[in-house]
Amino acid sequence: MEQRLKFYFWFLTIASVVLVGFNLLQDRQFSWTADEGYYYTFASSFAQEGFACFPKLFHSFWSVPKLQWYPTPSRLGYIIPAGLCFKLWPSMAVLGFFSFLCYVISLYVNTHFALKILKHKVTAYAMTAVLAASPLLMAMGRRALTESLLFLLWSSLLWLCTDYIINKQRKHLGWICGLLIWALMVKESTIALFPLILAVAWLGREGRSLPWREWLSITLSLVLGLFLIPGLLVGFERWIHHLIALQELGRQAVHVNPYVKQYCQGPWFRYLVDAMLLSPIVTLMAVGYLGHILLKKDDFKLAYLWLAFFLTVYLSCISLQMNVRYVIGLEAVYSLFAVLFLAQLTERFSNQIVKERVWLAGVSLIIVTNWMFFYQIFVVRGLLDPISCHLLVLQHFIPPYGL
Q1: Is the dihedral of CA 113, 119, 122, 126 positive or negative?
Q2: For the residues of 196-222, what is the DSSP string, one character each?
Q3: Where are the domains of the chain?
Q4: Residues 221-250: what's their mean pLDDT?
Q5: CB 318 within 8 A of CB 379
Q6: CA–CA separation, 339 vs 295, rounded Å?
Q7: pLDDT tens profile 57-95
Q8: Where are the beta strands (DSSP E) in 180-299?
Q9: Which of 77, 8, 31 is nearest to 384 (CA)?
Q10: What is the dihedral of CA 303, 77, 87, 136, to 10 degrees?
Q11: Are the C-beta atoms of 129 and 13 separated by less than 8 Å?
Q12: Rounded to the nearest 10 degrees, what angle do helices 2-21 and 92-117 cross at?
């Protein structure tokens, strides 16, 4: 049974990758006047001028108020590798291909660690198949945006922390620190993971002593990723001024930026609504498994760590601008919890043939439904930003309003 399911889940995973790969965008299909156009400017400037471009980009950003409604040039962890890709192929399409590459690598990383940590290989392969078919991941895997790279970094950090606790893999600390530095330079919101990583170091400690050395390494990584490395690349005075002004800009955006004011606010459960609109079956199964771990109180460290990650990311992203793209790291949690829910369901059957059919039916239903949503919303309609009102219109919950 296991071999057949393994082959089938691998087939579904490859099919998802092929579906994204065959629907990569041409230059004319990108949104040149939105976020993608600004990342193109950043990457092309770095490709042409190297690190000398950053003073000019920062000066332009703070000199023209309208530019402050769009991505900042502080996303160095994305701009630099994107700029290097741009040197090889100077077009917007290469930025989309870079996102696709991050999508594929993230699937490999999740498969590697899932096979290593999860008890059953069938569960690991099923998680990869479900994750590969995430409409949000598939959509971001073809856009010139930071989210695909950010998911790769966040999910890698999450698995490394899990392995650090469960298997006492202290050799991962260097990787954790390195990825933390990179992720901080891609998205400032990564700072929310800092307390969680400190807690991971404490939970994975040897003996009863406090992990002072590990805490020092993680704190140093925070300082390097948030201050020292960007300061060296951009200039310390300019970088500190940028961070301070960026905090104020974030608070003002909900009142000044018309797009944020109209489309990026809402109640605390908005992200759950968006998840339901994009992948309803996975979301419902994930919530079902959440109820299981809270009521059964299983001694499953992975589930509790991933729940802590979910709450950390979710709560850190509900105070100001709200966009389901900003919590893309939660796709790994949704996928794992949905598959673990399905695994719990199959355990109720003693007949191996029935178990196999439940696995096949459950995973197939999830993936086919997700493929349909991805194709209709992001390929046929070409949606860039999966905000709630657009999703509600495209799913026919509310009438069109000019979309």
Answers
A1: negative
A2: HHHHHHHHT-STTS--HHHHHHHHHHH
A3: 2-394
A4: 85
A5: no
A6: 18
A7: 888 888 887 777 888 898 999 999 999 998 888 889 999
A8: none
A9: 31
A10: 40
A11: yes
A12: 170
Highest mean pLDDT among 248-252, 296-300, 304-308 belongs to 304-308
What's the whole-number average pLDDT of the chain? 89
Amino acid at 51: F
Mean pLDDT of 206-231: 86
Average pLDDT over every residue of 319-344: 92
* Token pair for 48: 């042409």
In angstroms, rounded to a whole number, what is the distance separating the alpha carbons of residues 160 and 166?
Answer: 10
d(C-alpha 50, C-alpha 45), whole Å: 7
First to last CA, the chain: 47
Q: What is the Cα 290 distance to its own chain's centre?
A: 20
Residue 137 near residue 103 (C-beta atoms within 8 A): yes
DSSP code of residue 298: -
Question: Is a pLDDT exceeding 80 seen at residue 209?
Answer: no
Residue among 335, 341, 374 at smallest CA distance from 358: 341
What amino acid is encoded at 168 in this protein?
K
| Tokens matching residue 344 | 């719990």
DSSP string across 23-62? TPPPGGGS-TTSHHHHHHHHHHHHHHHGGGHHHHHHHHHH
| Residues 186 and 149 sit within 8 Å (Cβ to Cβ) | yes
> Treating both helix axes as pointing N-terminal to C-terminal, what angle do 352-374 and 2-21 enclose, rounded to 10 degrees?
0
364 band by pLDDT with thresholds 50, 70 and 90: very high
Residue type, 174: G
With left for phi above 0 and alpha for psi between -120 and 50, is residue 168 left, alpha or beta?
left
CB atoms within 10 A of CB 351: 8
